[in-house]
Design brief:
mainly alpha
Length: 358
């Protein structure tokens, strides 16, 4: 247990922000330098509309975290205070930002909740429920966007099919992983809560882990009790948690829409009408969701480097000014990613001192 605590502390140390920052900024700055010749900043004139749309983008980021906080409060049955929920979510986002996308912050989220005062089994059950709700969102939304849009809409880039196969297969692999995980979580929570407890107990029968077996058995018992409690919750409980999940993820994906509107509203050439049709906004939303699914197969922290590269190709159709795609990628990451690196680097040392100095 002590080893696991040290491992989790290492994962959230502030120095870990350096690698994802370097990876992401290096890719973006490289492409900005390539675009400098075609970049005409005289086309941009900031207006009140620019400020309004940027403000709305930050409001959506607030709603994203607010939804997570509400969901955690619901799943903990009020055992975690609002402040505790907010602190856990910010640390959770920081953990996601500095660990590979395939790992994410889910593994250390249990650690955060446990250290905030809940039993380890209950903490694991809460994280399992959040994981289930997150993956359920993707499992439902991914097929819906294929109903609303064709393969050409989703995967043909700037009229060329150069990227259609690799982007499609990245997305398909990521989706199959998410869908499988959704089924596993649903089975573990609603059908057979003993499954994870049995699995952990079996693992800890190994001679090298025997001295921790009693704690592992206790963990399995706590997880089963907590899962049974979640399983017995009424439909209203799950609908509220599901709506909070929908608010969070949908808010996350509409941030780019407003950043693009901020750019377009600043152009001397009037082209705002091009972005008014709701179909355009929905397509931007759909491509972002697919980008997030593709991140699963990339081992870099927070998808850094890869996600910026994909953005430059995948979102170029919606940036109406030559040379501005890389700048938009930078602004997008500055709003949606880097704040969590900075906030996490500020609050994680204090949190570690509070829970481990004694």
């Amino acid at each position: 247990m002590k080893h696991n605590e040290q491992k989790h502390i290492r994962r959230i140390r502030p120095s870990r922000i350096i690698l994802p920052m370097i990876l992401g900024l290096a890719v973006i700055l490289y492409f900005i330098s390539k675009d400098m010749k075609s970049l005409d900043l005289s086309l941009i004139v900031f207006s009140w509309y620019t400020i309004l749309f940027i403000f709305l983008a930050f409001i959506l980021m607030f709603l994203r975290d607010f939804g997570y906080v509400i969901r955690l409060r619901i799943l903990s049955a009020g055992k975690l205070s609002w402040i505790q929920c907010l602190r856990i979510i910010l640390l959770w986002e920081f953990g996601s930002a500095v660990t590979p996308s395939v790992i994410g912050g889910t593994g250390i989220a249990t650690f955060f909740i446990w250290k905030e005062g809940l039993p380890i089994g209950k903490s694991t059950a809460i994280v399992a429920a959040t994981s289930f709700l997150d993956e359920l969102y993707f499992s439902l939304m991914f097929p819906i966007i294929f109903i609303l849009f064709s393969n050409n809409d989703l995967f043909v880039i700037q009229g060329a099919e150069t990227y259609i196969n690799q982007f499609f297969y990245f997305a398909l692999i990521g989706y199959l992983f998410k869908f499988s995980w959704t089924i596993f979580m649903a089975y573990s929570i609603f059908v057979n809560p003993k499954l994870i407890g049995k699995f952990i107990s079996t693992i800890f029968k190994l001679w090298i882990l025997k001295k921790w077996r009693n704690k592992a058995v206790k963990f399995g018992e706590d997880f089963k009790i907590s899962s049974d409690q979640l399983k017995s919750k009424p439909l209203k409980f799950w609908l509220k948690a599901g709506l909070a999940t929908f608010l969070s993820w949908t808010s996350r994906y509409w941030v780019l829409n407003f950043l693009i509107l901020a750019l377009v509203s600043s152009l001397i050439i009037e082209r705002v009408d091009y972005f008014v049709p709701i179909a355009e906004h929905l397509l931007i939303f759909a491509r972002q969701l697919i980008m997030w699914i593709m991140m699963l197969v990339i081992p870099t922290p927070g998808g850094s480097g890869f996600i910026e590269t994909v953005f430059l190709n995948y979102m170029a159709d919606f940036i109406p000014v030559v040379g501005f795609v890389a700048i938009m990628a930078l602004v997008w990451r500055l709003v949606t990613y880097y704040p969590y690196l900075i906030i996490g680097a500020i609050i994680s040392p204090k949190w570690v001192n509070k829970h481990f100095v004694k």
